[in-house]
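Format notes (please read before filing issues)

Several people have asked whether sequences and structure tokens are stored in separate files. They are not. Every record keeps both together, in the order shown below: the sequence lines, then the token lines. Line labels are part of the format and must not be stripped during preprocessing.
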Amino acid sequence: MKWPNKEDRAKKQAASAARRQQEITKFGREVAREAFGGKVIAVHERGFVKIGGVFQEGTFERLVAIEASADVGKKSGLGRGVAAAMTMGVNLLGSNKRGDVYLTLVTDSQTYALREAPPTAGNMTRSKKLEAAGNSVLRAGAGTGNRVSSGARKASSSGTSVRERMNELKKLLTEGLITEDEFEQKRKSLLNEL
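Then the structure lines:
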């Protein structure tokens, strides 16, 4: 096996720096980067997100909408008491919170519904940070004629924006009122309106 010498390392570093500069020029600087729901999400200032796995480099996608939400409750005292008796108190070492934290990203090519459980201050903070960064770049793009932001806010004939209709569509899917295929078909038609 040949070990890389200083010259090889320098070439790789130069190529990597050039690639990063091209990405900044095309997609903007990274505004926020967080791990959530098994993915690493990076929000870029020109309205793009890069979504990848922990060990997998993601691809850039144009952000259409982003929403963070949480369903948090406390475990009942009776339930914790019964579980404590069964586990000899071991369950009392864990949190008494139950529920989920959700992050939904809609891009020009896909919808990501990410979830983490149980709710913690950390995962709630990460989801809200990504939501704030995403909404900030979408709002900033509105005044520049950015295709995503202007399209997402463009009113349809019924007076409802594409973003609002996309959120309503997402809600219908979550509630089980439409199938995944119906959701994808309608989502694509809404994106074509942009």
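For reference, the curators noted about this record: The CA atoms of residues 19 and 60 lie 13 Å apart. Residues 6-27 form the longest helix (22 residues).
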